[in-house]
Amino acid sequence: MASIVQFENVGLRYGTGPETLSDVSFQLGRGSFYFLTGASGAGKTSLLRLLYLAQRPSRGIIRLFGEDTVLLPRTRLPGFRRRIGVVFQDFRLVPHLSTWDNVALPLRVAGVPEEDVEQPVREMLAWVGLTDRANARPATLSGGEQQRVAIARAVIGRPEMLVADEPTGNVDPDMAERLLHLFDSLNKLGTTVVVATHDFQLLNRIPDAQMMRLDKGRLLDPTGALRYPPPRSRP
Ligand SMILES: Nc1ncnc2c1ncn2[C@@H]1O[C@H](COP(=O)(O)OP(=O)(O)OP(=O)(O)O)[C@@H](O)[C@H]1O
Ligand SMILES: [Mg+2]
């Protein structure tokens, strides 16, 4: 299968501290579904930030959509980022915009005519159960409601790749399942999905999903996308 992302011996160091990610190598198949797991502090958010180009690696090669991102001129970054839907661990909604306008934002930025914005936003809000909160500002929403706005905003443009960081951390199990169904539907339309989560209940819900497991900055699981480090043979 063609890969949409390739990491080769990627390392990430913040400032002069120790490496947060070391020797991370993997490929993501276009159209596949991945879960990224690992203890708090293992480096999940850091790895996702590299994926959606919020952060450059300290070493190694990252290819995205077939291009070497280290060589990518800054002017091309926004075009790349528009192809990726991101659900941030801390939501990052636009504070002065309503729920409706936050969710509509990616379509408007992409230049979709206003008459074609209304229906998808209406459908998306219904799906995440926020129709009656359409006019609310983020500060007046609960954590779970903000999370659902963030998810609606990330998926509405049907991005080529969806990167979601603990997207169900603030919602109840029924809603978590509903949101996962949304990711699954998007995946079936061709979007490559990467979901970082602590929630082991979720992992079994997508039978075809592959697992990537981080431990102290290194990818562990040899069965999924991950090929490094090689599994240690037992004595
Ligand atoms: N901007 C930063 N500057 C310095 N260190 C950082 C920064 N961001 C993360 N770190 C460090 O990198 C390590 C990995 O953090 P990261 O947020 O990637 O972990 P995580 O797996 O997402 O954890 P969690 O499950 O708690 O969200 C941690 O030790 C953290 O303190
Ligand atoms: Mg994190």
UniProtKB/TrEMBL annotation:
Recorded topology in the membrane: Peripheral membrane protein
Annotated SUPFAM superfamilies: P-loop containing nucleoside triphosphate hydrolases (SSF52540)
CDD domains associated with the record: ABC_MJ0796_LolCDE_FtsE
BP term (GO), one: cell division
Location(s) in or outside the cell: Cell inner membrane; Cell membrane
This protein's GO CC annotations: plasma membrane
Any one Gene Ontology molecular-function term assigned to this protein's record: ATP binding
Annotated Pfam families: ABC_tran
Record-linked PROSITE patterns: ABC_TRANSPORTER_1, ABC_TRANSPORTER_2
UniProt KW keywords: ATP-binding, Cell cycle, Cell division, Cell membrane, Membrane, Nucleotide-binding, Transport
Domain of life: Bacteria
ABC transporter domain mapped to chain residues: 5-235
Family: Belongs to the ABC transporter superfamily.
NCBIfam families hit by this protein: FtsE
Summary of the function given for this chain in its UniProt record: Part of the ABC transporter FtsEX involved in cellular division. Important for assembly or stability of the septal ring.
Subunit record text: Homodimer. Forms a membrane-associated complex with FtsX.
Name of the protein described by the UniProt record: Cell division ATP-binding protein FtsE
